[in-house]
Amino acid sequence: MTDMESWTAAPEDADTQMSLHETLVARLRQLMIEGPLASGQRIPEAELCRRFGVSRTPLREALKVLAAQGFVLLRPNRGAIVAPVDPAQIGPIFELKGALERLIGLTAAERVTPADLDALAALHLDLDAAVRRSAIEDYTRLNYAFHKALARISGNALLCESYETLQQKIWRYRFLVNEDFSRVAESFAEHEQIMIALRARTPLDLAARLEAHNQRTCDAMIEAARKTLADSGAPER
Predict the structure, then answer these.
(1) Of 16, 65, 101, 156, which has the maximum CB count within 10 A?
(2) pLDDT digit string (tens) for 112-129?
(3) Beta bridge pairs of residue 81
(4) Furthest C-alpha separation in the chain
């Protein structure tokens, strides 16, 4: 039995809440997170088609999504591979994102509306529920939505576009760091302080809290990426 065959798929009752495309993306991503599809490995399309009972077309559409999220490298005429984990990529992304986080804090604190606060508070409650369920993938998705919504409050479309680009670049690494649930709990506690500063409409405090949250996440991601490389036996790039 191969590692791919021995991998246990997610429960079917969870899949019924997602489309076939979303389910396929989620299952492929999980294979890459948990190891049956290792960093740098060529993706066995025929085997995966048999495993999931799909044709090449939906599989390749799912791989395109995962490529945009940083999990896959698409190589014309040579097949796709699992994108290699590279800790050296993380620091520069977060350095730039930290500057945007500060700008988000300075502007959102002054421009937030009651409706904005209600929407973020609802996301914050959903994050709390995910922590209580130890639902790591749910937390990762909700965390992404929370920060995207906070960026939108800035009212600066160019900022939001740049921020979204950076968020996509680190999407793959978010799953790595959230495998350590202690970091998830810390992240949620930091979100609590972010919400307090936003409700108080204190620009400098919110900016500082977002910058600190960004740096702690960066440090945790670099550590998680290095651990992943060490566990795989691959040299650090």
Answers:
(1) 101
(2) 999 999 999 999 999 999
(3) 42, 73
(4) 59
